[in-house]
What does this fold into?
Amino acid sequence: GGIDRSEFETRSLGVVEQHWMCSPSLSLADHMLRGQDLVAWPIFTHSRGSDHYRSVQRWFDADGVRPQRLHGCNSLATMIAMTVAGLGLSVLPHAMLEGELAAGRLMRVATQRPVEAFEFVESYVLQPARLAVNVVAELGREIASRSPVFVAREPALRTRAPRKGR
It folds into this structure.
């Protein structure tokens, strides 16, 4: 998510498709699942308060249930490792994990509702004297545009109007 203040500029880097995933050892392949079916499983997500954490909570809220074991983690690599090990389920970026999916170390969990795609943005202070910030921001957009993980989202520019007197 971006910073909703007038002195910051926020630009989209694109969206990343997310899906519920688990180890094939959990035997969830034969079912179309709802929130009620997943509440008892350990769920790995990013830290409490993050957009990812809130997205997972909203997914369960849509079915009127709360997960019993929602575990926050600061490391995507750790979330993936715990999911591959069969310790629980996670909402993970599909495009980043094609190798694990093809090798059978992970599988997508079929759910009745999709998970929200996440928009990644860059946000930086609008200050004319900060040429380096603009260069780094442009480099970030260029790298994201070449990545198969990010899907461009329009409009690509979301700028707040500067406050009067600044």
